[in-house]
Fold each of these.
Amino acid sequence: MIKQITIIFLVFCVSYSFAQNTYYFSSSEGNDSNAGNEGSPFQTISKLNSLSLAAGDKILFKRGDTFIGQIVVSQSGANGAPIIYDSYGTGDLPVLSASDGPNGNPDPLSTIRIIGKQYLEFHNLKIENARFDTTGTDDDKSFGIYIQSFKTLPGSGNFEDAVLFNYFRFSNLVVQNIYSVNSNGTAFNNIRTTGIYFLDAFVNDVIIEDCYFTDIERCGIWLRKYVSDAIIRNNKFIDLGGSGTIISASKRVLYEKNLMRFTGSNSDPRMTGRGSGMWVFGSDDVVAQYNSSQHARGDGDSSGMHVDYGNTNILFQYNYSEDSAGGFCETLGANDNIIWRYNISVNDGTLDRGGKNKLLWVSDYAFVPTKSTNVFIYNNTIYQGKDYKNVIGDSEISLKAASLNFMNNIIYLEPAAKLGEKAYLFDVNTPNFSRNIMYGGTIKVNFKNLDATKIIQSPLLLDPGRRHYSGYKLVTGSPALGAALSFTEPSFPLAGLGIFSAITSNATKDIYGNPVNLSGATNIGADNGSGEPSIPTGVTYEAESGIILGGSQINCTNGSGGKAVNVGSAGQTLTFNNVNVSGTDLYLINVFYANPFKSSLKVTVNAGETESIILPYSDAYCYQSGIPTSFPIIKTLNNGDNTIMFEQGIIDKIEVVSVNEATLSTKSETFLNKVEAHLEKTIISSNETLRLIINKEIEYKNTGLYIYDMTGALLAKKDFYSSEDISMDANNLGTGVKIIVAKVGQYVFVDKIIIY
């Protein structure tokens, strides 16, 4: 009986000590004299700051409302009972802003201020702080959430020897419009303006996930000093003046599945205009994986991601980098055990806006110049051709290290691209270059000669130039298949421990998820698959090889073979009698035509029913240097020879390929360098799902998908307000050629699809 009473008493004490209070706030409906419940909410930030919060309490802000003032977090939660700041109701996220505009009232340095507190959570809030009115100091700084401890570094120099503050959670936050009063005249490295900022924080156990950062003077997240065991994942950093994330003077950080686009932006004149998607400085044990960075800009460090100086045990794997001004694998000085593996780089390195343009970049830059040791760059795929402004690659090579290992990489250049010709620096004490594929363009001979086992053959990539990592798989017959050097990989010491429980020291898979074991036979490059079927071009039949009745062969400067056939009038025909296929099946027939106006092409297969197909216009007449345009049609062909007859068109050639073998391009289309969209497939069966993949600079736009038949009749539509991809079942759309129109905000995407 005594034991039972004791247990009941203990349970009562625990429940009592963590009793939860929930306080509701509404700027539009509340009053600070209210009770603070949902039916009678408080109103102001001043009221919030006056509350004596306890562990387990919740503070909820009404969606759709705006709250002005600085939140001063003056109480901590407890283990198992954090203090939670969240939203309630429906509609847009509540806006928290320390600044109320240029009205003469001093604007606080941050919207949420946390000094020496712990066990805190922040969810489902929009945080802003565009400062206009000075407080008299720190006019060149501004923060959304500011975390500091005012602790001092122990004599050991290891911040973890101090007592740390624990447990911080941030999720589903929109952090935007963060600007200082005026940073003109402040050196770039002294501009600190950041969305979530940790300074002398002395904190442990941090998770920042599913947040959206945009329109910020410099940085999205900055672990500036003394953070350990942090996970930063599934966040979007879009259009920032500096970097998406900076990790400095911290230990054990997992950075994964983040999207960084247009970092180093200058879209607002207050932005710093320089920044890599993410970088690490003076930190230990960091893993960055499954991240994507596109269009980083600036005249300094502006790579997709980079390793600054003074780091140990940094692993970058399974990342996609595209069109960064700096380049790929930027690694500065005084580092040890830096690993770049199974990443894909597409058109990195540019001179745009003063970019460093160093595609391959390892330097000794540090407080005291010091070459890095044990730099490993292996099994990456690096492509360079034309960037998104159609500028052909001409990048530098700059490599300076104590020891550098460069193995099993693919470097693929388009014919006119250059690497290392503009500038070349090689100063490595102990180089190890082995089994790389170096193909295409003009690659500096001195660099190529570093690898005595190199392969100078096309790696046969699936779709080189595609602005998506899916284009860099290997196809059947690639010389990279099974040809990699087998070696003992460098170790990541904390693999399998703590936040790295799912991280393996050796690579066990590639960027596509295929299994990997580099102690045995593997592929060169980032793809360890067995080889994809190549994108078929089909069997080509030149128009001038067909039987022309009533029409004529004409010169066509940009046509295949410089010829085309004009059978544009009624009764004129072009017939192919020897279209040979290996089995009775559905076939894709790509018709290349040069009609300079909207027209109706008649097609008859094997003397069957004649079908009229409306063709969009091509760009000009052949004699005006017009370029033939292709239009796909689907027809059933029989095993052996088939007859295909065309009437009322200017035909350059046709290509014939089996639908079942067709692998379709998923190249992104770009609109004003702001919006990208691509169809997952453009040929689908009626029992499949049509998907439009949306990648936008500015998320959360009105999005719509509209499907029309060739007469212009609307078959289906889907409108919604989201940042997600669009999916639509094809079973009710009918078969044949359709026109798809997608609207993303003010941008429009148009393409043809075929349903069979």
Amino acid sequence: MSKSVILAEKPSVGKDIARVLGCRNEKNGVIEGSKYIVTWALGHLVGLAEPDTYDAKYQTWRLEDLPMLPEQLKLSVINKSGKQFNTVKRQLSRDDVSEVIIATDAGREGELVARWILDKANTKKKIKRLWISSVTDQAIKQGFQNLHDGRKFNSLYAAAQARAEADWYVGMNATRALTTKFNASLSCGRVQTPTLAMVASREQEIKEFKPDTFYQLYAKAERGPVFWWKHSKSGDTRLFSKEKAEQLEQQVKNKPAVITSVERKEKKNDAPLLYDLTELQRECSQRFGYSAKETLSVLQRLYETHKVLTYPRTDSNYLSSDLKGTMKERLKAVDVRPFSKNVLTINKNGWKMAGRMFNDSKVSDHHAIIPTEEAPVYPKMSDKEKKLYEMVVTRFLAAFFPPQKKEMTDLQAEIGGEPFAAKGEKVLETGWKAVYDSEENEEKNSIPSGVKGQDTLNLVKSGLDKGETKPPSALTESALLSAMENPARFMKGEDKELLQTIKQSGGIGTVATRADIIDKLQNSFLLEKRGNAFHVTSKGKQLLDLVPEELKSATLTAEWEQQLDDIEKGNLNKKEFINQMKSYAGEIVDGIKKSSQSFKHDNVTGTPCPECGKLMLEVKNKNGKMKVCQDRSCGYKKNIAKSTNARCPNCKKKMELRGEGDGKIFVCRCGYKEKESSFVERRNKEKQDKASKQDVNKYLNNQEDDGIANPALAEALQKWKNKD
């Protein structure tokens, strides 16, 4: 009897599929049953080969060897993944295997993971595709009952390949050209450089901004609201002339307000659309300070490990119509605290999810993020996992509630011959707002129901409010994600048709890659965070001066993304796109070679490099400070200070770990200092009666779960953990 090889993206998903399909014979990297052989990748097992694969001369970075434009890019097995690749290849090569079922993540990158493995293993067997948006037992069973022909996804693979190859041709050549020309580690790319340019553009706007003082004239009625003067034509309430403002103030003082019109209308506020990844990342950044990468990591665990949320890497806020029949089971799954009250209300009233949430035309690869049919097990969730799960479920439940209804009142008046206006609102029905425990029953700027046209109201007070125009805000992670999703704000002078195209194409990058792009910009010392806002470093500013103008353009990058989308839809040939990218890479290299500019390090220290003797640079990254050799060919690095999760016993703030070896010391901004050895001893003593080694292990695991790269506290505890 012939068998099918099922290729999952990660071991956890592979093991879930194997369990559901009854495969129990587990060996290294494989679980076999009577009909199926389940194996998996570890993320990517195969990638695009390094330049020296094509020519040995590329082992050394030299400007004269550029551009590198191989006719056909090759694949190579990633070194650390070689063992698992060989395991997968053996299963694919078995005589009793007749077909392959791709079960990697259902999206562009997941398709690439699988197809590159199949290509490198030279597999010619029939391909089928498992396409599911959650990894619950029910979803897996239904998915295997509805497997797709693998050929249906050939264009998706072509788009994924085109994206990866374009990054190789443009990114490899531009980065090597800049680095060798200016002898500095200068990384650029088709998405990261325009992203950096948007942060720089916003910083320049703020720098050039000059505030203007303005005045607003108000008048408080005896039995009514506060009125504000407004310009008769523009409707603006601000006056930029102090003399004019003071003149108007005197003109209306103690004058009655004559009501010229009263307009009352009912307004319905629909529940917000369901979450896509970018909106969740934005909101988590605003509410909790989580990075985009951190939010995605937590969502991935809720999808893969806990199985309580659907696939997170989605750019859609809508659901496909075939999901309507699953709503009852999903409501049942979330009928737990703190949602039971709202689920009871939904069931009691027989409410259905709002019809506007279902739109097949606005769902591409994946629908919005919603709960699965699996009930949550809170004791197994971290605090971050609970927070994100509750955010998604709350938004999901709100979609079943009716709209919020308000009475909006627009009052127009004349005081001293000048036009004034007042607006008021009153909540009539709470609707979906009840899910968020914000009933908003208080009236805003209360307007008595008896007020009508031609009424005269006496004033009790009038005066001027003074204010200043404010500069645009620096880009936080939330704002930068929004800018990447819709960069039109940074594209002044472009025609409306192009701006609309960019909006429809989803901006620069994808929901799956934006978090990594932001992370890479920080790790390359091109972008840094001060408080909640991003700022371009000196290195980043110089890079933007050195790269070709079009490579900084969100316009060009968005057009590339649109072309990738066309490849995915079968409207553009991949080879045509790649030829454009190769030609463009050649132009970039030529421009950099001819450049007469120079790069200057402004962070040079007085410390010589112990390897080559050149003065070292002091750089910051998200985990602390380090010194690196200014000669990129030397590559020597040394940590100065590392951010940690260790709390100061005095002020409870996080401390830095400085020094090396036995001289490591924890330092707090309040002045507290403590040797690492003393810290470990104190920590052990505190934990002795309260926690076991298992507790410490759990703490260390949580540090890793939070996405903190090698925190010093975890390092210190690790030494204790590994004793005996």
Amino acid sequence: MADTLSRQDFKRRVLRCCILVTVWEAVSGQIHYSIPEEMEIGSFVGNIAKDLGLDLKELSDRGVSLVARGRTQYFGLNLKNGHLFVNERMDREQICGHIAKCVLNIEVLAENPVKLYRGEVEIKDINDNSPSFPENESALEISEYTARGTRFPLEKAHDPDVGLNSLQNYKCSQDSYFILNVETGDEGVKYPELILETSLDREQQAVHNLILTATDCGDPVKTGSTIIRIVVLDGNDNAPEFTQSVYKVSVKEDIPVGSVVLRVTASDRDEGINAQIKYSFLKISERFDKKFKLDPETGDIQVTAKLDFEELVFYEFDIQARDEGGLSAYCKVLIEITDVNNHIPGITVTSAFSPIAEDSLLGAVIAILNVHDRDSGENGEVTCSIIPENLPFKLERSFDNFYTVVTDRALDREQVSEYNVTVVATDRGIPPLSSNKTVFIEILDKNDNRPVFDQKYYTAYIPENSTPGVSVFHMKANDVDWRENARVTYSIIEGDRSEVPLSSYISINSETGALYALRSFDYEQFREIRFQVQAQDGGSPPLSSNVSVTLFILDQNDNSPHILHPSFPTDGSTGVELAPRSSEPGYLVTKVVAVDADSGQNAWLSYQLLKATEPGLFSVGLHSGEIRTARSFVDKDALKQSLVVLVKDNGQLPLSATATVTVVVADSIPEILSDLSSLSAPADPQSSLTLYLVIAVASVSCLFFTFILVFLALRLRRWRNSQLFDSSSVTFSGVPVSQFVGIDGVRAFLHTSPQETVLYKDCGLKEFCFQGGSASNTLTGINSAVNKQTESFDEETSTRNALDIFLEVSVLG
């Protein structure tokens, strides 16, 4: 009944401790909670949101969470109310052992912005364990000759609780021979021992049974007991004696297995069998027994398993030296383990934030690391660094063993798109140990680079008259950005032909940059197209660059030569050239002038006499077009010579044109008239038509003769003016009279070369001359000059018409 009441009282005390738990205290800027052990799962620990100054809404918005380290998660966080609650039942003795203050650290991570909070929960001990002895009953053999005052160490009880809840005292049942003495060691541990107060007498009492009780000071008080059975031995009256009552030694934790750490020595003043001593552990715990072995003959204590400073720092046990007569002595052995640097530092990536934008601000958090080393002292002090050192990142220590990897300078994805950041943790042991952890960081692209064309400007060529839709050439622009930021589209943005939309001439494939001609070009209309092409990426906002493009039109032989002289009459008359009968071979009769609207070799003209009334009488200059006499005239040569001249260009598949030149052979105009009269005399007298023609010719001849006289008079008067031709820069000496036609003193001289020709007018001399000029203006200049020549020769037209009538009459005759 008393036991049941004690349990109920204990439960009430535990519940009261849970209700009165300390919620908050500030220690070095950290949150602190205290709770008793063995609390139920789900029990309230503290209000994290309130203690950190966070709104409940911020808990989910900022991604607040507890940082896990891969161990048992004793606590959980309720994001709805911000409460920290018990997630696993906690046994303080299992978690912290004999450590007086049992503290569990908690880390709370908040994101957006990233911030790490540190807290601790102290686990308070409750009296949930009773003191206990290794065995319920133990035997102790004592010789009857044992002297009074001899001490007999007893097996200690064990209580895993701490403080007042741990073992505090021993009590022993009443006995007239023995009294209980409790000694307190250096570490505050109490050691029970029996002191022989009265000499033993085996004959009076051979066995003594004592009850040893261990108690704590918890609430309620808990106890544990064992029975000590003392057997009184007869005989041997000298017990062994150790050289030291306490043996202390320090060994390194990396001592090899099998090494002897200590030798205990005892002696016995007896002789013979009573002086033979055997050494043994006195009730050593099981885990101590696995670490050490005692040689019963020599007293050597040997290491049987690898020691670990982080597991246990201090070993304490009792050794008994017993002779063959049953007498024994006891000593205490204390073995202290010293730390060596045998644990590699560990690195845990608690949070990583990758990928990151290349325009991230300096100091942006990339990863949060936790560094830990199981060693102690300098062996457990860890420093961290980043390799290689030239990376744009650095380490910053937040608190304790937490580090953050942050940006140290601007990032550029076009230079480096990803990083493997290796964090090296090195302790200060001798020799130092280190470990590393690699964090992969990917850099997100920003549209910070414009497309760049592979040429500063483009020049392309396309033949005229090409098929519409033909591909001209491709252009390429590269963007060092990534994905959409590097996807380039092309467009034409401007040109130099404002009167006609550029889109009617050319187009560009927006994806490939291929340029196409939409129509057939005419070299004679325009010879080049200048425009700009824009390359724009797909970023937001997009970036672009422009390049100038010049498209040259290549000439094709699509224009036939155009005859400028002799020009085709517009009034039905035919042009006539005069050649004196006395002309020597090589006499320049006239010149065929032609132009070609094409350019280059397509405009190189050659002249050829295709047909003549008298073959062999005239020759034509291959490149000059000059018609010269090939031999002297003879009487049988016809008065009227008809020449057909072929003008051909030099293009592939050459084009040509023909010109018909009529040459009248006579020394003067009157002679022409007389010759024409003689040609018309033998007409048929019976033909009335012939008579009428003769009459008409005679009348016209008289009128024309009168006109010639007037003309000669005018010529004499203007003779002085004609001398200007001799002193001018253009010399006409050697030019036959047949090249100058007119009745008003106007001379027209036509001259050309194998190249393109432009016609100019000298107003002061009232003459026209051809000089080298631009091929693009050839037709315009020539036509303009010919029109002016026609106007200035109006007075000459009647003369030419009269000559034509005479020639037609002669032909009819």
Amino acid sequence: MTTAHPETEPAPPADTASPEATPAAGATENSASAEATETAETAEAGETAEARETPEAPDPAATSETSAAPETAEATRSAGATETPDAAETGKAGVRPGAAEAAEATEVPGVVGARPRGVRARVAHWRDWRSRHARAARVVWWTATVASAVLVLGALLLPNRLFALHTSQFLRLPGEAIIGAALVLALPRRPRVALAALAGTVLGAVTILNVLDMQFVEYLGRDFNVVLDWTLLSDAQSYVADTLGGVVAVAASIGLALLVVLVLFVMAAATVRLSNLLVRDTRRATRGTLIAGTAWITCSVLGLQIAGGPIASDRVAGTIASEAGRVRDTLKDEAEFGKVARSDTFGATPAAQLLPDLRGKDVVFTFIESYGRSAIEDAGMAPGVDETLATRTAALAKAGFSAKSGWLTSATYGGSSWLGHSTTLSGLWVDTQQRYRTVMASDHLSLTKAFQKSGAWDTVGIMPGVQKGWPEAKFYGLDKVYNAFEMGYQGPKFSWSTMPDQYALEAFQRLEHGRAGRDKPLMSEIILTSSHQPWAPIPKMVGWDDLGDGSVFKGIEAAGQKASDVIADSAKSKAEYGKSIQYSVTALTEWLERYGTEDTVLVFLGDHQPISRVSGNNASRDVPVSIVAKDPKVLDKISSWNWTDGLRPAHDAPVWKMSSFRDRFLTAYGSTAHPSKG
């Protein structure tokens, strides 16, 4: 009795079986044929051929017995078979004997063209198609091979900076590829495939990290932190939703997730394919690996370069080492910063000794979004902004106000405005999300909370950018906070910004600053958002008496530029950014000119520089800061600071770290230091 192959269904009865399914000889011959077939298949899998492995995906051109002969001879010797595996596999029709029977036996009865089941049947089906369409198969094979090589080499040499994306960057010799080739040639089949797949996955992950670094440097001026920055991706989604719409944000999120999975899978498949190609001719591959390794070592020792960079590249190894170091430093910093946040120079200062020289004054701390040094000194933006600052300085002087200005170096760049706010007001260097959470959960005395602690001021926050719960109000010592939905605005959003700065300031005047019957002076924290990227559309100033509920801005918003037309264009972004700063400064100083009194003190500053597409790749992190008041005694208190008169700080005006502002301000206005230690 003939026994069916374990991966096929039983053969049909003899009277109905096809000629191909009928034994050509007796049981002995059939048994010998089956044994030879199994031996050939074992040789194909590489399980018994340690000296030389046969290719899993041979060149499609090898469809004839003649072209396959050189390769099959060695496989035959390794397998110990009496017939070459390739000859047994291909036969005259290019299909392994028995493959057709397996495919036919596993086809669904009555279904024309049903695809065969089982691994061997699928391989036979593919080889049959390849033999019938040799030219197309050759194109597919070469396309997949070249694409795999390009992907792997590109990932090995990919920089993590957008400005470094040049052709010369990819003309280097990656040391990781040489080491990988040596390992592949030394390992048997299964460990080799596993290692290649793992290496490809790691290479895909490094590629993703490099792209994240590019975007973070572009938007935040720093590399992506694998420990802390995942939460910022949800903020990025919210920004896209507010800027380009919810549908675009959802589509972008889904597309990004699919792209990540695709990168990891494709990179793993590419490295496995290249490893299979290497072992097809171990002699040549070994020789090539030795030559490449010698060339890499020579270039490294001699320091040979191309286009200013080393020919001998180890980018992936360097990236992995850098990420590991960053993780280690992040975890160490978290523990150390917690101790710093618990100690405070003014933490134990009695209420009566806090800010005695500002008692009776209405003090307004205002942050202008993305108001950086580049707005004042960049040749493309400075003319318009400087003219606005000069005009507004003159207008304030006419109204009786004087101003002094300097520079602060922000803890953030391009975004994450809350880091700039918290650094300024806490007196601590808050440059990461983890530090921010640590500070917000601490009892550290913020500058604004010092006013509340003194008992001499009512405190309020005007937060048009806040659209959900904001527990930070406790840290900042704010008795009352007005978010985007509590100021009565009924006009249109201006991209990310929920309302124009002019309206937010008028709402502040109506709700708090101009409210009759106040029994205490007011300390206010105001965040202005009209200069937030993408800087389109930008509001225009309207008559203060015409603001109403903000509906007057509908026509202005509709006539403005679309965010999608500006967001990816560097020239347009720079031009519109400059206009947005002019608008924000004008709105704020007009409010002061219109509503300020002898007892009004305005402190305003930028929270960070705009993104590098606007400020440039080598821009500083400096932002302007100004103090404006009618009472000359207020500015006399900071005369030792050597700040510049007016709203525009001189190029050589003093530059301080943003974290030093709290202590300098408290000291200048009479506060007595009483340190506390946690």
